[in-house]
Amino acid sequence: MLYQRYIEIGRICYVRLGDFAGKLCVVVDLVDQKHLMVDGPSTGVPRTVLRLNQVSLTDLKIAIPRGCKSKKVRTEFEKDDVSTKFQASGLYKKAASKQLRANLDDFGRYKARVAKVARNRKIRSTVRKLKK
Fold first, then answer.
1. Distance (Å, whole) CA 94 – CA 126
2. Of the candidates 63, 81, 70, 5, which has an alpha carbon nearest to the alpha carbon of residue 39?
3. What is the dihedral of CA 62, 64, 70, 72, to 10 degrees?
């Protein structure tokens, strides 16, 4: 199967770009091929239209009808405990590590680079031993 996650009503999305970056939202309606109407009442995303390239689709989905009100989205979002399920996903872990890396100071970046060089040196020496 080519695609695993389809754009559908009730699909949970992670906003990557824009004013609401780093927050979760729910697809409420499809505007056209490149735009989604999303709502995230419990995460601070108002009902708005976002471009498809601004969001990442997750594996999570809630059961809501097309174009439903924010109150219904909030109750289903909290009933399915979406926030904790998302925190167990790889997308959350990747975003958290990216945020951690972005907040490093100069000495932190230096330590990370030294650790990366040491790790790569160890891997390279192990590979050379295995080739012989």
1. 28
2. 70
3. -90
Residue 127 has what pLDDT? 96
Which one, of 36, 46, 44, lies nearest residue 69 by Cα?
Answer: 46
Element (H, E) at 94: helix 90-102
Amino acid at 8: E
DSSP assignments along 12-51, one per residue: EEEE-SSTTTT-EEEEEEE-SSSEEEEEETTTTEEEEEEE
pTM: 0.77
State residue 122 phi and psi, 5-degree precision: -65, -40
CA–CA distance from 68 to each of 37, 79, 118 (Å)? 11, 16, 54
How far is residue 21's CA from residue 110's CA, in Å, rounded to a whole number?
28
Under 8 Å CB-to-CB from 111, ≥6 apart: which residues? none
pLDDT digits (tens, 9 = 90+) for 69-112: 989 999 988 898 888 999 898 888 998 888 888 899 999 999 99
Question: Which backbone phi and psi does 66 adopt, to 5 degrees?
Answer: -65, 130
